[in-house]
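Milestone 3.1: sequence recovery, worked example.
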């Protein structure tokens, strides 16, 4: 009976601590850095189709591009699905403020523009204001930019490099480096961005 009670209490503490705790992956580190990486430019995410390779019924292609310039950013997602004879397209453009410290980049999304079309005709256009932040890290060894959480613009998927972090912002931590390698090269859908100019 005592063991069950202890397990329940520990579970509640962990759950409440996670809900109430500071989400470090939404803020820049407090310390100052002697050098700041220049994030300005165009970054592309390597993408693979989300449809089955040999499917004759469903073909998919998608892309994700990040443009950082003078303290602002634009993040573009485009998806094209051919399902049977129906062509569906979706475009999401997020805009906001880009701030950096050292090799860390914080994107603060202020607005999203969403456009959906079916067989070339616009089905829906939607614009919303938002206040969402996500932290990214530039790894010099791989020359890749990593979000701390899988970034899907509108919806969040709470997994990624952050899962391997024991001490937030510790760039030398072994787990941090291992998780970056995992999400850069081993995942079917890589999380990282490569600078193209």
């Amino acid at each position: 009976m005592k063991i069950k009670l202890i397990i329940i209490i520990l579970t509640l503490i962990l759950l409440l601590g996670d809900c109430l705790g500071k989400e470090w992956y939404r803020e820049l580190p407090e310390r100052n850095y002697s050098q700041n990486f220049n994030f300005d430019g165009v970054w592309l995410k390597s993408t693979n189709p989300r449809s089955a390779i040999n499917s004759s019924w469903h073909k998919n292609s998608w892309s994700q591009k990040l443009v950082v310039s003078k303290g602002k950013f634009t993040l573009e997602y485009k998806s094209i699905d051919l399902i049977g004879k129906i062509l569906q397209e979706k475009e999401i453009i997020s805009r906001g403020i880009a701030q950096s410290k050292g090799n860390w980049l914080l994107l603060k999304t202020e607005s999203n523009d969403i456009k959906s079309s079916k067989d070339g005709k616009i089905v829906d256009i939607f614009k919303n204001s938002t206040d969402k932040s996500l932290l990214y890290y530039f790894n010099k060894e791989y020359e890749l930019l990593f979000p701390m959480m899988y970034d899907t613009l509108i919806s969040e998927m709470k997994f990624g490099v952050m899962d391997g972090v024991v001490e937030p912002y510790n760039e030398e931590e072994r787990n941090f480096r291992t998780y970056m390698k995992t999400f850069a090269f081993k995942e079917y859908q890589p999380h990282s961005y490569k600078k193209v100019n």
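DSSP finds two helices and ten strands in the chain. The helical segments are 2-20, 174-186.
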